[in-house]
UniProtKB/TrEMBL annotation:
Record keywords, A-Z: Signal, Transport
UniProt keyword Transport, yes or no: yes
Family indicated by similarity: Belongs to the bacterial solute-binding protein 1 family.
The protein, known as: Carbohydrate ABC transporter substrate-binding protein, CUT1 family (TC 3.A.1.1.-)
Organism of derivation: Tessaracoccus oleiagri
Length: 428
C-alpha cells in the first residue's frame, strides 16, 4: 500500500503512549506535514467573550452542551450555543450555509469534507494558538489542504469485525478469522452450526457502503487514485477482486440483501446476525441491547487480510469558519476542546477516541482490551483522498455497490462505471 492518496494512520504504540500516525492527502506533502501556518493571524490573549454559534452532529451535537459548561465557567463573558445537526442532512446544510454566508462560528466537520470546504474558501486557517504537535500526525494531516491546516482533529476512529464468541464456540470456531477465506468460512459456520439466520451483516450499497468496500480494495493491494493524484484507478484488477469478494457474501446467502434498518444491535444481541463491521461506539450499544453479562459474549477482531489487513479511518475535525465575527473566542473554544483533560472527559461522554496522543494515558482507554484492538487496527487504517469532489464520487460508488449486491451486476462493469463517472467529475 504505497499510495499517498489516503491517510495511513500508525497507532502502533498508542497504548504505550508513543504512537505515531502518518497520512497523505491532496496537498502531496511529506507524511509529517502539519501545515504551513506562518502567515496566519494570531489570537489575542485573555478570556473568551461574546457569543459563539456551534454546529455538531450526532451524539456529539447532543453531548457537547454538557462539555462546554466548563469553558463558559472559565470564560464567564462568553455564551456558547450548540445546534445539533443530523448527520444525514449535515453536508447539505453546511454547503447551503456557505453559499448564503450564514455559517456558524465553530463546527464539527467531516474529514472527507475538508478539501471541498477549503475549495469554497469557507474555513479559517489554524492559528499558532493550537499546538498541532499534540495530535496524532495522521489525524492532524486530515486538516491540511495544499500545505495549510484549516482545522484540528477532534477525534479518530476505525472499524473492526464484531463477533459473538459464544456462537462461534458453538460452531466449533476456536480462533477468529485472519484472512478473507477465513472470514467467509467463519460466517458460514455460524449460520450452519451456530444457529444464526445470517453469517454477517454487510451494507448492500447505499450511503456510506464505500467505507466497508474500500478497505477490502486496500487490503487486496488496490488504490482508487494513482500516486501522483492525476488519475482515478477504481477499475483495477485488485479492486474488481475485492468487490467480487464482497458480492459473494450476498450471492451465497451469508449476508442479507435487504436488511431492516436500525436493528444491528438487536440482531447481534439475539444471535440472528452474529457478526458486523463497525467502530468503537458500538460496544456500548450492543452491551445495552444484550443486557447484563453480554460483554462476555462477544469480541472484536481486526479486519481480515488479503495482502494485508486494512480498515477505514474516520473521525471528525473542528473548524472555525472565515465569516465568524468572534474569531478569537472561536479558536479558544477549539483549543479548550482539544486539551488532554477535555479529550478524556469527551471520551467518557461519547466513547469518541481522542486525537490528542497524551489522552490515551487515561485509565479508561489504556485498560480496555477490546479498545486496544482498535488501536492495533489503526496501524493500517486509511481514508479516501482529500479532494473537493469526494462526496459526489462516493455517491456514485455507493450506487454501483448497491447494483452489484442487490441485482447481481458484474463488479468489473460496476467499477468501470465508477471510473468513468469519477473521471468525468474530476478531483476538483
Amino acid at each position: 500500500m504505497k499510495s499517498k492518496s489516503r491517510a495511513l494512520v500508525a497507532l502502533t504504540a498508542a497504548f504505550a503512549m508513543t504512537a505515531a500516525l502518518s497520512a497523505c492527502g491532496r496537498d502531496g506533502g511529506d507524511s509529517g506535514d502539519t501545515g504551513d501556518q506562518s502567515d496566519v493571524a494570531p489570537i489575542a490573549d485573555g478570556p473568551a467573550t461574546g457569543t459563539l454559534e456551534v454546529w455538531a452532529m450526532g451524539a456529539e451535537g447532543e453531548k457537547l452542551p454538557e462539555l462546554v459548561k466548563k469553558f463558559q465557567e472559565e470564560n464567564p463573558d462568553v455564551t456558547v450555543n450548540v445546534t445539533p445537526v443530523p448527520w444525514e442532512s449535515a453536508h447539505d446544510k453546511f454547503t447551503s450555509a456557505i453559499a448564503a454566508g450564514t455559517t456558524p462560528d465553530v463546527a464539527q466537520v467531516g474529514t472527507t469534507w475538508m478539501g471541498e470546504f477549503v475549495g469554497l474558501d469557507a474555513l479559517d486557517p489554524t492559528p499558532e494558538l493550537i499546538d498541532v504537535d499534540k495530535f496524532f500526525t495522521g489525524g492532524q494531516e486530515t486538516t491540511v489542504v495544499d500545505g495549510v491546516s484549516y482545522a484540528v482533529p477532534w477525534y479518530v476512529e476505525t472499524r473492526l469485525v464484531y463477533y459473538r464468541t459464544d456462537i462461534a464456540e458453538q460452531a466449533g470456531i476456536t480462533e477468529p478469522a485472519t484472512d478473507w477465506e477465513g472470514l467467509k468460512e467463519m460466517a458460514k459456520k455460524m449460520q450452519s452450526d451456530g444457529g444464526a439466520e445470517w453469517g454477517i451483516s454487510l451494507q448492500p450499497g447505499g450511503t456510506g457502503s464505500w467505507q466497508t468496500v474500500l478497505p477490502l480494495m486496500w487490503s487486496n493491494g488496490g488504490e482508487i487514485v494513482n500516486d501522483d493524484m492525476t488519475e482515478f484507478t477504481f477499475d483495477t484488477e485488485e479492486n474488481v477482486e475485492a468487490l467480487e469478494y464482497y458480492k459473494s457474501f450476498f450471492d451465497e446467502g451469508i449476508a442479507n440483501k435487504s436488511p431492516a434498518q436500525g436493528t444491528t444491535e438487536a440482531d447481534f444481541a439475539s444471535g440472528k446476525v452474529p457478526m458486523f463491521i463497525s467502530g468503537p461506539w458500538m460496544m456500548a450499544a450492543v452491551e445495552a441491547a444484550g443486557g447484563e453479562g453480554f460483554a462476555d459474549k462477544y469480541d472484536v477482531m481486526e479486519m481480515p487480510e488479503a495482502e494485508s489487513s486494512a480498515s477505514f479511518i474516520g473521525g471528525a475535525n473542528l473548524a472555525v469558519f472565515k465569516n465568524t465575527e468572534n474569531r478569537d473566542a472561536a479558536w479558544k473554544l477549539v483549543d479548550f476542546l482539544t486539551q488532554e483533560e477535555t479529550q478524556v472527559e469527551w471520551y467518557d461522554l461519547t466513547t469518541d477516541l481522542p486525537s490528542v496522543q497524551s489522552a490515551w494515558e487515561a485509565e479508561a482507554l489504556s485498560s480496555d482490551e477490546k479498545l486496544a484492538k482498535f488501536g492495533s487496527q489503526l496501524e493500517n487504517a486509511f481514508a479516501p483522498p482529500s479532494i473537493s469532489t469526494w462526496e459526489q464520487i462516493a455517491t456514485a460508488f455507493d450506487s454501483q455497490v448497491e447494483r452489484v449486491t442487490k441485482t447481481g451486476s458484474d463488479p468489473a462493469e460496476a467499477l468501470a462505471a465508477v471510473q468513468q463517472e469519477a473521471t468525468s467529475i474530476g478531483m476538483g
